[in-house]
Amino acid sequence: MPNQHKIFNDPVHGFISVRFKIIFDIIEHPWFQRLRRIKQLGLTEYVYPGALHTRFHHALGAMHLMQMAIYTLRDKGQVISEEEEVGVLIAILLHDIGHGPYSHTLEHCLIKGVSHEEISRIIISKLNKEFGLQLSLAIQIFENKYHKKFLHQLVSSQLDTDRLDYLTRDSFFTGVSEGVVGYDRILKMMDVVDDELVIEAKGIYSIEKFIIARRLMYWQVYLHKTVLCVEQMMIKAISRARQLIKRGVELPATSDLNYFLKNNISLDSFKTDDEALHHFTMLDDIDVFSALKMWRYADDLILSELCTAIVDRKLFKIEITDTPPSNDRINTLQKAMARKKDISIEDAGYLVFTESTGNHAYNPNAGRIGILNKNGKVVDIAEASDQLNIMVLSKPVIKYYLCYPKNMELPSE
Amino acid sequence: MPNQHKIFNDPVHGFISVRFKIIFDIIEHPWFQRLRRIKQLGLTEYVYPGALHTRFHHALGAMHLMQMAIYTLRDKGQVISEEEEVGVLIAILLHDIGHGPYSHTLEHCLIKGVSHEEISRIIISKLNKEFGLQLSLAIQIFENKYHKKFLHQLVSSQLDTDRLDYLTRDSFFTGVSEGVVGYDRILKMMDVVDDELVIEAKGIYSIEKFIIARRLMYWQVYLHKTVLCVEQMMIKAISRARQLIKRGVELPATSDLNYFLKNNISLDSFKTDDEALHHFTMLDDIDVFSALKMWRYADDLILSELCTAIVDRKLFKIEITDTPPSNDRINTLQKAMARKKDISIEDAGYLVFTESTGNHAYNPNAGRIGILNKNGKVVDIAEASDQLNIMVLSKPVIKYYLCYPKNMELPSE
Amino acid sequence: MPNQHKIFNDPVHGFISVRFKIIFDIIEHPWFQRLRRIKQLGLTEYVYPGALHTRFHHALGAMHLMQMAIYTLRDKGQVISEEEEVGVLIAILLHDIGHGPYSHTLEHCLIKGVSHEEISRIIISKLNKEFGLQLSLAIQIFENKYHKKFLHQLVSSQLDTDRLDYLTRDSFFTGVSEGVVGYDRILKMMDVVDDELVIEAKGIYSIEKFIIARRLMYWQVYLHKTVLCVEQMMIKAISRARQLIKRGVELPATSDLNYFLKNNISLDSFKTDDEALHHFTMLDDIDVFSALKMWRYADDLILSELCTAIVDRKLFKIEITDTPPSNDRINTLQKAMARKKDISIEDAGYLVFTESTGNHAYNPNAGRIGILNKNGKVVDIAEASDQLNIMVLSKPVIKYYLCYPKNMELPSE
Amino acid sequence: MPNQHKIFNDPVHGFISVRFKIIFDIIEHPWFQRLRRIKQLGLTEYVYPGALHTRFHHALGAMHLMQMAIYTLRDKGQVISEEEEVGVLIAILLHDIGHGPYSHTLEHCLIKGVSHEEISRIIISKLNKEFGLQLSLAIQIFENKYHKKFLHQLVSSQLDTDRLDYLTRDSFFTGVSEGVVGYDRILKMMDVVDDELVIEAKGIYSIEKFIIARRLMYWQVYLHKTVLCVEQMMIKAISRARQLIKRGVELPATSDLNYFLKNNISLDSFKTDDEALHHFTMLDDIDVFSALKMWRYADDLILSELCTAIVDRKLFKIEITDTPPSNDRINTLQKAMARKKDISIEDAGYLVFTESTGNHAYNPNAGRIGILNKNGKVVDIAEASDQLNIMVLSKPVIKYYLCYPKNMELPSE
Fold it and tell me: Which terminal CB of chain B, N or C, has fewer other CB atoms within 10 Å?
């Protein structure tokens, strides 16, 4: 039975009500509380100082939008039982539970080859046992195994409540007002046709706007060059620490972080032994950043330089290009660095490095956004939009970047 | 000497300060006060009930953004004298002074062949005399005759403070949050290169967003089909009234409106005789709408039906198509109407009618939006934007529509 | 059965859904549409140019808050049937239907001795017949004759959805951000104890804030001295027109306004004869302001001077004091005016006049605001608030003012 | 010379421009960057999950408001030289530089008897040397030794830009919209009379509102009982850790935190030896919270229980009262706890404890808020406000609270 258990203040959506006891209990669980200590946008705060919001707040926000979507769909005559309501609310609430410290930034660095989705699955399954199988329907929806497919689409698709919340929230806390999405209008325009989540035709401009806003947020926020740079610096610092530890160097760190630095944890480790999961559920941004702070005092020059630069925000120079930087240029820079610091070329790679990044504004292969015309037919937004060139937006864009300390005297190209 | 004379509260921009006495005096002038009675968006309130804001408020808002633009440009080292500052502030303040009742809707209906820009020119010129030639520099800027061309561009170009204010303001008062423009960011990114107003490269996403937001506002607000419909109904009512008056029928109306209904006023009338201007400066939305209200009681069935339908908001049906409706269909409908009401086919054209409308999201022929790259070169946004297909957006879109009373039994197509 | 019939865009609350057919039908009725032409704050736009919002929008907004209140109360276990839901929604929707042009300003000027509540009652009763008695429950609630008293309190009490909407809305459109009320928090804190609408104890600061915000809005907006001044000028103009008409002078006006200028309409007129009601339901701000515009050309100097001053916003000087201005001073001023204009002393009273105004921030006699303590007991906010001196706020404040034309040479006091 | 060096995005104020090179250099300094890691509201995020904003962002925001205040005062004819402008901007920017981890919460816990203001002074003085004495005027203003006293009042008084920013910012990030302050209006109403910062009389309602909003923020946010509880729990954990260390127990912690846990640092330590300052400038929220996370594994039951409870957010029960809880009740509870955990009564005091807190909404002894009447005279707001009982608000309110673990079976009172 629905009942108002708790209200959260949210500067983005106003009040967020928790209406079911099981949901309140999940929120109170230490594993969910851990999300309070994982920033939604990792190091983005280095450019946008307001962007300190957490996965905890995002999960609540996405759940709130899910509740609004359910109300709208019911008002339009779609039948959604209370059991399904609770299921889909839990599914969205826990969709990010498997994220580790600094989310995507360290996703394949701390635990190689294990995605956060896989860890989410393991955690949700454990929670299900703990809560007497009350999460079973949520798991079915999350895994897209429930017969009503549109419930999964509300959790995960090109226009899910996850995206609607994070774009709105990230835009709000960064102060990039242009990323604002008309999430309320989009929610009101949602309907279900043949078990597919669709948008009424009169919402088409809102969808175009949503796609453009997402693209803007990518280039202006998520892939901001200064953010890319400091993220790579953190990855290099962690990698260097692992390498030193492998060589037998003792480095201070919390025991939970140490576990992941010292061992090669695989998906199997998570499945077969509770230790990996235990340490993971204790781990958050604070473990990582406190380690960086302590490593400023490390004997290893490379590690201490990287960590000091991150903590004091003396960031490296970053050059962004449409094509990969030439090997020649990288080699020249690394050699110069090796000479300057009296280190090996290989070690110079921790201070002079290159990476690439990219994104789709709209990915037609990841399931379409269906537009419901007045005649009852559903067409892809790419087809329905009379003018915006969705096909062009669908083309992935890749950018390359090269980073190195600002103050070094380097041979210019 | 700048001095704070007056502060206006603006829900959109906060406080708007009037810093120069001459500007305060212009605002106090009855001709400027008249703009309080001309809604910025005419009949759009029929769809968006909050859209009651006026040209008065818009003019103040655009002036406020102009002031911000001046501060930014000066901070970047551009020299703008106080005389030029006052000039460009007055130019934007008065850019819409020549608008008549219901702005664009009745622009070529009440006074045929005379645009609001031409009337603006006449009014500004009169004011200049009244204010002892203190508006001369403003006029030069307005007419693009001043040697610093970028000042004119701030008043009138594809990215002027006029557009920045009206998009923001219209979005605010309609509640269409998706039309929100990052005007503060755009203003901060403004610079001047070779006397051309340009935007720094890092503002490129804001410009893309601005173009998309403008397009969205066009289709979702300015050209909303219900708005188009009621606008045409008003035009038909005015036309019918003029026709009846020509036939000698007496219709109640304020004397100022009567002047324009009874006479064929041309641009020459305005230039040669003060009467036209006098009546024009007394005229506003209230004259027109009070006439519609009175004409509900008119003996002429067509006029009373149109006016009752407008006032009571019993709007006609509107069909929107990408191609013009066939003459056959129009004829059939008009014939049916003529039969039903026992009126001539010609008169039936007041109740069954067709029109077209269109817009460019970005018009490359109307002067480019220049993007200033880091290398100091300026390129067109159409070229600078790596992905958004500006060329597609530049293509004008034309829509056709057909209107007729909802309750009539009509032969279906 | 609830069903989504229509969505209104509201810059204040976002989307407002109309979920019941009968409500949609009422909104479509010409008598309700008339509220589109009655500004919520009358002449306040003379000081706050954004304050053009209408009683139409306010009624929709208050209905929206009522819907939210219902959801909250149901979530807390209060039983509210769908019939009661529709009833209370209609009651709040129509609570202002009896307002005439310029609402409170002309309330006792156009139709002497008849309050807008009485006219509301008559109109709602007529609508009830027209809609096949579907409004009967709404009427019971409106009249506080329904057995569940808290439903009436939601419509009309010291903390009803009417106040929550108008304070929020007026604050929004004037741009006086300090008037912002935490309406969402207050709504969430609502509960019902012994059929009394109460606020949970933890909402006490929001209530204090609500009372202070209301007080601030009174002095800064509703009773702003410039607004008081222009309101009185309008009242004087209408009175003068009535006087002239009584003397046999012909003045232009719409026929609906003329009806009220020429006749002394009483509550009985409304009850016994349909003509009064017919004309009233045709009347709005436009009739009044178009009359003012036409009367600028009147032969009577007093009327034309008043009307020109209003239309051109050349407002009178206003002196505000805590005690009434002395009769001596008033007489001296009126005599000077009579001499200057060569008019009688009595007529001078249209140009030199005095009035008083006042308000309670919190009126303990108008029903308390009950605070629900954790122990389940309900106490008056005046008692529950540990520090804010509600008793002081409850004391009515009266201010006196004296108005006269700015440009006149007057003997100083 | 002013020049635009850098723009920060601020969701609260929009763009914040840094216009002077020296200010940009200070912001870039690691000591200022440290403020990025000190949350403005410490553990308030435990109740308001959005309240993660930092002293870094607040310092920038307060500087921005200072800039606006300067513009306003200059527009009103006050002479403020560029040197003074830079001075007062630096003074406000650095006013909180001496705050340590968790700001006020741990202020007298980590470093006994040393206030953050004293540390601020030491740090600013060091920075002044580092920046070639460019901060000398800022120091004079900060210390209220500069002859223009109003500059100091802008930095620190009952209505300074510090308060204006933090109330607005805290309200924004907590989502407690009722705490919103009309800071823009207050800034516009500022003036200087006889070297005293005053507010024009027409801003009086904004000031009343400001005082009420501050009071609301105190009780609803700053002194929220759950926040008080977790803060005390953190203080008890730190105290326990210090006690254990004194007894020779080894506890993991960053070296910078260890320095303050192991030594009794006094103001003298800061003045005479660089080590204290060095460690202090390396210290932030992360050092403290990572220690709490590590101490969950401590052998000491009291410490591990406190830390686990904090990290997992299993907070203690808190009882708030207007009078101190009786010694009897405290003793009974502590004895029960001692028995339950098999610990000494003294140690039980870490788990069952009592504290008090209080605040003034307006403190007349801390310098008045002067209101400038139209007649040119300045009076205290307490006198100028016709109705709000400032004297009542000035009375400090003290609340007492008692905390103990939720799950313990305790003798009820």
Answer: N
